[in-house]
Amino acid sequence: MAAELIKDDEEMDKTSHDFSPLGYHSEHKPTWCPGCGGFGVVSALYKSMADLRIRPESFVLVSGIGCSSRLPEFVKAYGFHSVHGRALTIATGIKLARPELEVMAIGGDGDGLAIGGNHFMHAARRNIDISYVMIDNSVYGMTKGQPSPTADIGTISKASPYGVFESPVNPPALALSFGATFVARGFSGDPKGLGSLIVKAIKHRGFSFVHVLSPCVTFNDSLDYWKSNTVEVEPHNPEDRFEAYRLSLLTDKVRLGVLYQKTEGTLDEKYAELKHAVGKEKTLTVEDFFADYR
């Protein structure tokens, strides 16, 4: 976590910001459908930022396209609403350019697993120090509810009137196989529990992935289903990737909580070491760069 985000009371001007969850509300009210899981996620994020006493100017939210990607507009912080599937590329660039900032990418399952799946893989394997919150409702809510990569076999929709034939993607298992160093699963119907996972994700040094099971009340209202079919993950060694993978695949009751966490060197740390080795005093101009090609 960026060192400058949490400060002692004597170092902080308490009048400059309201460090309660309400203090992180922007002037824009959420525009989701009433009952959307996005409300639980943004509430969890408000609480997480308050618990960590994050200054809004030190936090950047980057999203792609989709219902969940509207979220940065509702949070008092820097926000970047990017294009479909590209949130992690923008977030990576911001973190490398401004490593002192806390950077979070946020978006849906269609945004992150279909058009954005390639970027998900490379952000995870590079272990860039950012958090990625994926709000998964198994549909493309903005385009009339066609099934996303996480939709179950047999799902009926306007775009799949005979049911989905493909096997669904398991986001936590995918993140583990990509090399993510923090993998957790939460539920938008439990904002308090989800908030604690987001706090842990932000504190983790490396690529943090939080998969959020979330209902779409318009096209896939799974709230009651997830209430009945989720359970807290049993105690285990969080550094055991194989055990985390096993837990991510269990379907008798889907496990919620931290599945995997291990500290490894991050991409931004390696870039900082390279910059130091090259020498901060050396400034490469455009002319210097092209001189090698003449």
CATH homologous superfamily, by name? Answer: Thiamin diphosphate (ThDP)-binding fold, Pyr/PP domains
SSE ordering: HEEHEHHEEEHEHEHEHEHH
Rg measurement, Å: 20 Å
End-to-end span in angstroms?
Answer: 43 Å
Strand content: 15-25%
> Could you name the CATH topology?
Rossmann fold
CATH architecture: 3-Layer(aba) Sandwich
Low-confidence regions: 1-14
Secondary structure category? alpha/beta
Strand order of the largest sheet: 2-1-3-4-8-7-10-9
- Determine the mean pLDDT: 90
Task: Give the biggest sheet.
Answer: 8 strands, mixed
Helix proportion? 25-40%
Summed up, the domain count is: 1
Please work out how many helical segments DSSP would assign: 10
Reading off the top of the CATH hierarchy, the class is best stated as Alpha Beta
* C-alpha geometry: globular
Number of separate strands: 10
